[in-house]
Amino acid sequence: GMPPPSTPQEILDIKNNGPNVFHYREIFRSSAPQSNHNLSVGGKNNGTDYYVSLGYQNQAGLVKEYDLLVGKEGQIDLILIKICNYHQIASIFGDEVLARMISSKIDKLQATLAGGVVGCLNNKLIGYIYPSDEGVDIPLMRKMLAEMRLPYENEGIRISPVIACSVAQKQGQIEPFGSLLRRANGAMYHAEDTKSEDAVWHN
What we know:
Mean pLDDT: 75
Oligomer: single chain
Number of strands: 9
Strand order of the largest sheet: 4-5-3-8-9
Order of helices and strands: HHEEHEHHEEHEEEHE
Strand content: 25-35%
Distance between the termini: 48 Å
Largest sheet: 5 strands, mixed
């Protein structure tokens, strides 16, 4: 049968006492004060296919943050960043590398487009609520995506993360988050289907 998942106590022990291969301090070092960290590690029976879910906010947290911003002046964009070859990376490198990779993409997003709220919508999809006066700077976004796709090398194995990106801008004064997310997901489907190097905007 499948191995039992880590218990909350085991995860807490690892977090408090320092794991052998998992560097939590590095992963969590850039978290914002309002962040909510979620971490789950699980594996299939063969021990080679692991998943790591690393969230600064989950979807419910992003909804709350969005609701605080939605009535204010200015633009709100929802940016989705997807690591399309997530399972390939996990099977080759394991959960430690995958967690670092997800963390590095979050760091890059926060450093490039400061002032937003970041979260993980699922194991391979990062969501970023970005309030601004003028919207997303397209050349800056293009540069960030190129840097996110730089190859990772470990013990002679080299792999490039396959990154897809979509953006949806809030429509009207009080568009619900669910509606904004549906439009961003629609643009993400197009971004993956066309293998677009640039972000795909939902109009």
